[in-house]
Design brief:
three-stranded antiparallel beta sheet, elongated
C-alpha cells in the first residue's frame, strides 16, 4: 500500500499595510528569533512588524512568492500580461525601455 499524500501548507507572504514590509515564511524573522518555515498564523500574538512595530492585524495576505500579482478573477484580462510574475513584468518593462533607448540613439546614425 502507498502512503497517503501529505498536504504541505502554501507559504503565503504577508505584507504590512503600514510600511510595506513583507513577512516571508521561507526566511522567518531574525530580529524576533522566528525560524525559517514558520507560517504567519503560527507567529505569536505579541509579534510585531520589525520595521514599524505594527500589530499582526495590520498585515494582508499577498500570496506565495513568484505568483502573478492581482486578483485571481482579473488575471484573464490585459492581453496576457496580468498572468506575468512581478519579475517577468520588470524584464518586460525595462527591456522595452532599453530597446526604445537604443532606437532613439540609433537616430544619430541617420546623417
Amino acid at each position: 500500500m502507498s502512503e497517503p499524500a501529505v498536504d504541505t501548507p502554501v507559504l503565503d507572504r504577508y505584507e504590512c499595510r503600514a510600511c510595506g514590509y513583507v513577512y516571508e515564511p521561507e526566511k522567518g524573522d531574525d530580529e524576533h528569533d522566528i525560524p525559517s518555515g514558520t507560517l504567519f498564523a503560527e507567529l505569536p500574538i505579541s509579534w510585531r512588524c520589525p520595521v514599524c512595530t505594527a500589530k499582526k492585524t495590520a498585515f494582508a495576505n499577498i500570496g506565495p512568492a513568484g505568483t502573478a500579482s492581482g486578483f485571481k478573477e482579473n488575471l484573464g484580462y490585459g492581453l496576457g500580461v496580468n498572468t506575468l510574475t512581478p519579475a517577468q513584468k520588470n524584464i518586460l518593462i525595462f527591456g522595452a525601455l532599453a530597446l526604445g533607448f537604443l532606437f532613439f540613439i540609433s537616430l544619430y546614425g541617420l546623417q
